[in-house]
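seq:
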Amino acid sequence: MKRLQFILENEQATVDFGKRLAELVINIPIKSMVVFLNGDLGAGKTTLTRGFVQGMGHNGNVKSPTYTLVEPYELEPYRVFHFDLYRLADPEELEYMGIRDYFQPFCFSFIEWPEKGTGILPAEDLIIDLEYVEQQRRITLVAKSVNGEQIINKLV
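struct:
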C-alpha cells in the first residue's frame, strides 16, 4: 500500500492538484477510478474535485452535491461523478438511486463521506485525506489498487 503526502499552500494549489490528477489519469491512461475523499467540513474535498473536473475539460461551475447526493459531468469519453454522502441517513438509500450504474468503464467517482456508504460502495482505488495544518492543507494519498499505485508513482 503506497502512501504519499503533500502540503498545499492555498485553495488554488488544491484546485491545481486536482487538475494534475486529471492529467495523470488521462496520460497513464486509467479507464475508471473510485476515489474516497476524507476530511472535515471545509477541508477542500469539493475544491480538489473541482480541479479534477476542470482538468478533465469541464468549463462550467463545479458545485458541492450536498443536497443532490451526486453531480454528474459528461466529458467525452469520460464521465465524472461527484458524490457527497454527508446527508445520507442509511447506506441502503444508495441502492434506491441505482448506485451501481455509476461505476462503469470511463467513469471517475469522487466520494465525500464514503463511510456513510459502507457495504454498498465499491472498493476504492485511492483514498485522499485532506486536513488543515495552520493556513495550509495537508493532503495524504493512499493507493488501494493498481490504478492508485500508478497515480502515486507518477506524483513522486
